[in-house]
């Protein structure tokens, strides 16, 4: 698992891992301050587990958890050492220190933030740490690293190595994401540099919300704005594949949009309400909760038409999304006129050269493909792909989606040799841009498997379906329509290859996901 | 065979220690004759102190060998002076440092050292001193009685208490804040007793005061420099080098210490401007010292001589950064050995050095923003920034992005490893 992950972004992770390993082994008997950096705590845990197994058997592993409140690294290590005779006798060991990632960056009303206290201890404890003659691996996030360099400069200068591990998923939120919350922030909590991609952690954000909620009455209309912006942050993290825990952050996004909607309704903030309704519907749709999504989309559409008039790009978006919902439900005849309306509106309002137009073309083509209207679908797909590439560049998730869709079409038409390279390209692109833990990656795996299935390449299809199933279970849950589809595909495949099966009599019901 | 290769690189890696050499054992192994002039300068100030109570301020850039030098200096004067050398960070938490507990820490460490060296203090004096300490640090009477015979431990306890117990620190501060002279009088008594008993003048060296945040240093020195200069014996205080740029603090400190400020410089590998020339003239004495430092720690069989020289130039003359580069090189070799355990020979060559330097450069790049790059660019072009007092410039200076070299006039240059970052940014 890890070696795959490591090979994926770059060989850099593997190289850094080996650096860390040889350093731990070479540092026996001397204090060695090693700084390991990873923004994805799940990935981090797997790396720790791996080096704890792979280092020489004569080196014992110890875990040190930094306490909240008074995060003194010396005290935390001393506690572990005092409780252990082997360490006191100077036995070979590696001490892994975690918990820094949990420390709040924000002051939250205190004089100094937990992180500042932590840096204070670091800066001031070199001499005291010399009594611990072991390699000490201190795990931090990029957000902590930047501040550590500035606030504990002497400690930084005693580091014996920095080991970075990159992952698409991240527990951190950039300064840019926080900018819309400016209104609610204390001056010294606001980012002073919009470029900082590691401004604060998801945990900090949760605390920040609680703090703001504490200062205002629950009915304060301003909170509606806060909730909606927070919902946006989580929603974007989901779409970009940054979420640490897909389902948990999805639930948070839904929760905040619901809170926003409740307040916006009370305060009559209709324009804002239409966006919140729209976003919540989108999230329900992606969870497969179609019947809950539909009334929300309809409400949002109605509001937008009333507030913005019929001729507005946002109205087009509402039409498009409602159509997508119907499409997901198989209500093709209801979807088509809406898709056409949205496409026409977008072309007129945004011009032919717009990414939204490409999206509309794509969606319409999907519909035709599902209806078996292949000859109508193909030119639309090709047009969409060309437009997307030109407007958004080759490295964009929408390009991956376009490639994937076109492959679907060729697959449906039995043009397998044309479909395969497109599926592979889309899969590679999605993994790279969205990370391994994203539902779209599962879709790619499933559809590639269905292609192999159609070609009778069962042994190649099965591992892909297994991967896809595990991934959808993790990201979307066991009862999501897509999970169910993939599970069914796997069952069909297994029935096909089971020795008791008579292949002549099986009617393939392999299905695809768009 | 490769087992041996692994072992020699592991040993080299362990020898490339970034922390100061404080123990005699480490010094014997790794010390090179470095900073001789600085030791002489300090010695002269100590020796020439007319009334035996001179205060000396010692400062310099991060990682250029200050702590190692102070430890060595203390040992050098050991037979002539009663030297009390300690790190303030071992005695008091950073968040709680003030002039009162610095003075109190001096008192504790005076006694700690006296008992460690078994200085024969008359019992009556000793008792009085112990009782005074016990009452100030809330250690019960019986404990003092029990501890007196092995008094050495008493001061360990007091020292521990001072570090751990914020209430005690607060009480001490409250008691003496308005009557510093009482505290100083007590410290002077202790010093006098020790001087009589040991027949040596007292010299106190306080390290790691330079690790304080500037704001804290300002509080401590701005209003209390006089108090810190009150004790009637010689003291060497460390301070962050940034203080020397403060137009208020610097004159204040100069006046109070009678201008006894010693700066430990970065080793100058080039004269100003030389490093920009195609074939720059290297200052051989500086280069030789740094090469020697490498030789002490890493066998010449593991490091190509011309690579060692390049390594030295890449350090910009900062000791700790030199060690860091060598360290990084060793790590790369260790990784290569791990990947191909069958190989029997390996040396750190230019290619490995390049990789190592790239890694360190990435660390340098992490916190840099647009303003920083502009300052670095200017400094590279002019050997000085537009505004040497600008906070961002000072941060760069303390982070060793910019190095300060001393001549009759000071000049600055961008760290050799950082120059490449300017190139990557398209600035040069």
Commentary on this structure:
The complex is a heterodimer of chains A (514) and B (428). Chain A contains 24 helices and seven strands. Chain A has 514 residues and is of the alpha/beta class. In chain A, the strands form two sheets. Chain A has a five-stranded parallel sheet with strand order 2-3-4-1-5, sandwiched between helices. Chain A has a two-stranded antiparallel sheet with strand order 6-7. In chain A, helix 22 (439-454) runs parallel beside helix 24 (481-497). The longest helix of chain A has 22 residues, at 246-267. The two termini of chain A are 27 Å apart. With 428 residues, chain B is an alpha/beta fold. Helices cover 58% and strands 9% of the residues of chain B. In chain B, helix 12 (214-228) links the parallel strand 3 and strand 4. In chain B, helix 6 (99-116) runs parallel beside helix 11 (180-198), helix 14 (284-297) packs across helix 15 and helix 17 (350-365) packs across helix 20. The longest helix of chain B has 21 residues, at 319-339. The two termini of chain B are 47 Å apart. In chain B, 41% of the residues are buried. Chain A binds chain B through residues 15, 18-19, 21-23, 25-27, 29-31, 117, 120-121, 123-128, 130, 145-146, 149-150, 153-154, 157-162, 193, 195, and chain B through 9-10, 13-14, 17-19, 62-63, 87, 89-90, 93-95, 208, 211, 320, 327-328, 330-332, 334-335, 337-339, 359, 363, 366-367, 369, 395, 398-400.
Name its key features:
heterodimer, A: 514 residues, alpha/beta, five-stranded parallel beta sheet, two-stranded antiparallel ribbon, globular, disordered N terminus, disordered C terminus, B: 428 residues, two-stranded antiparallel sheet
């Amino acid at each position: 698992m890890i070696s795959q992950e490591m090979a994926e972004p770059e060989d850099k992770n593997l190289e850094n891992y080996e650096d860390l390993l040889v350093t731990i082994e070479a540092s026996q008997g001397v204090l060695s301050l090693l700084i390991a950096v990873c923004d994805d705590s799940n990935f981090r845990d797997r790396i720790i587990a791996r080096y704890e197994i792979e280092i020489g058997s004569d080196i014992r592993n110890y875990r040190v958890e930094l306490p909240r409140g008074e995060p003194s690294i010396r005290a935390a290590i001393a506690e572990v050492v005092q409780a252990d005779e082997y360490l006191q006798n100077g036995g070979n060991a590696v001490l892994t220190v975690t918990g820094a990632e949990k420390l709040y960056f924000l002051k939250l009303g205190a004089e100094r933030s937990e992180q500042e206290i932590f840096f204070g201890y670091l800066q001031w404890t070199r001499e005291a740490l010399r009594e611990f003659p072991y390699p000490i691996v201190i795990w931090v996030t990029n957000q902590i690293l930047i501040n550590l360099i500035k606030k504990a400069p002497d400690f930084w200068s005693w580091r014996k190595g920095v080991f970075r591990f990159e992952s698409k998923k991240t527990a951190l939120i950039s300064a840019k994401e926080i900018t819309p919350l400016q209104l609610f922030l204390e001056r010294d909590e606001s980012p002073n540099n919009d470029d900082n991609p590691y401004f604060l952690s998801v945990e900090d954000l949760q605390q920040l919300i609680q703090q703001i909620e504490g200062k205002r009455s629950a009915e304060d209309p301003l909170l509606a704005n806060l909730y909606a912006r927070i919902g946006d942050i989580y929603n974007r993290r989901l779409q970009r594949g940054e979420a640490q825990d897909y389902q948990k952050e999805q639930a948070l996004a839904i929760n905040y949009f619901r809170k926003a909607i409740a307040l916006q309704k009370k305060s009559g903030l209709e324009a804002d309400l239409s966006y919140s309704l729209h976003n919540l519907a989108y999230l329900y749709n992606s969870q497969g909760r179609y019947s809950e999504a539909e009334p929300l989309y309809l409400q949002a559409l109605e509001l937008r038409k009333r507030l913005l008039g019929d001729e507005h790009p946002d109205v087009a978006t509402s039409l498009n999304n409602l159509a997508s919902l119907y499409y997901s439900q198989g209500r093709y005849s209801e979807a088509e006129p809406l898709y056409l309306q949205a496409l026409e509106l977008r072309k007129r309002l945004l011009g032919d050269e717009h990414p939204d137009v490409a999206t509309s073309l794509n969606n319409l083509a999907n519909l035709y493909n599902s209806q078996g209207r292949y000859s109508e679908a193909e030119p639309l797909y090709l047009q969409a792909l060309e437009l997307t590439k030109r407007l958004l560049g080759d490295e964009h998730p929408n390009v991956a989606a376009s490639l994937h869709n076109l492959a679907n079409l060729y697959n449906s038409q039995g043009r397998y040799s044309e479909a395969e390279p497109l599926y592979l390209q889309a899969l590679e692109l999605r993994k790279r841009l969205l990370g391994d833990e994203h539902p779209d990656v599962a879709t790619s795996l499933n559809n590639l498997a269905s292609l192999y299935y159609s070609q009778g390449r069962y042994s190649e299809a099965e591992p892909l379906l297994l991967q896809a199933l595990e991934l959808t279970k993790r990201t979307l849950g066991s009862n999501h329509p897509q999970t169910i589809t993939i599970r069914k595909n796997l069952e069909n495949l297994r029935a096909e290859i089971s020795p008791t099966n008579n292949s002549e009599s099986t009617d393939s019901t392999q299905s695809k996901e768009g | 065979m490769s087992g041996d290769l692994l072992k020699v690189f592991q040993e080299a890696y362990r020898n490339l220690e970034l922390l100061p050499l404080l123990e005699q054992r480490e010094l014997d192994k790794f010390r090179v004759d470095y900073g001789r002039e600085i030791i002489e300068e300090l010695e002269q100030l100590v020796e020439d102190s007319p009334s035996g109570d001179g205060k000396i301020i010692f400062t310099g850039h991060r990682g250029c060998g200050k702590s190692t030098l102070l430890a060595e200096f203390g040992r050098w004067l050991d037979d002539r002076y009663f030297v009390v050398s300690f790190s303030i960070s071992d005695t008091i938490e950073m968040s709680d440092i003030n002039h009162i507990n610095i003075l109190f820490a001096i008192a504790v460490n005076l006694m700690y050292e006296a008992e460690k060296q078994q200085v024969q203090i008359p019992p009556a004096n000793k008792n009085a001193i112990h009782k005074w300490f016990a009452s100030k640090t809330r250690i019960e009477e019986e404990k003092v009685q029990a501890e007196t015979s092995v008094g050495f431990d008493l001061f360990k306890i007091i020292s521990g208490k001072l570090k751990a117990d914020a209430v005690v620190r607060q009480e001490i501060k409250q008691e003496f804040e308005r009557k510093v002279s009482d505290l100083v009088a007590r410290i002077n008594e202790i010093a006098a007793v020790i001087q009589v008993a040991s027949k040596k003048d007292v010299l106190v060296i306080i390290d790691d005061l330079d690790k304080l945040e500037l704001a804290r240093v300002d509080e401590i020195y701005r209003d209390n420099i006089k108090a810190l200069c009150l004790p009637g014996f010689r003291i060497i205080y460390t301070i962050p080098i940034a203080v020397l740029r403060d137009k208020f603090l610097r004159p204040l400190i100069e006046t109070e210490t009678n201008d006894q400020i010693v700066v430990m410089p970065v080793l100058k590998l080039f004269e100003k401007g030389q490093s920009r020339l195609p074939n720059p003239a290297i200052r051989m004495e500086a280069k030789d010292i740094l090469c020697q430092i490498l030789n002490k720690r890493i066998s010449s069989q593991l490091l190509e001589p011309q690579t060692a020289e390049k390594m030295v130039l890449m350090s910009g003359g900062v000791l700790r950064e030199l060690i860091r580069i060598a360290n990084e090189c060793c790590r790369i070799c260790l990784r290569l050995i791990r990947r191909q355990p069958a190989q029997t020979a390996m040396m750190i060559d230019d290619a490995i050095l390049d990789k190592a330097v790239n890694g360190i450069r990435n660390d340098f790049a992490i916190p840099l923003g647009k303003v920083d790059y502009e300052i670095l660019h200017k400094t590279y072009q002019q050997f000085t920034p537009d505004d040497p007092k600008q906070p961002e410039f000072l941060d760069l200076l303390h982070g060793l992005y910019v190095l300060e070299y001393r001549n009759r006039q000071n000049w600055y240059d961008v760290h050799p490893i950082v120059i490449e970052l300017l190139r990557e940014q398209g600035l040069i």
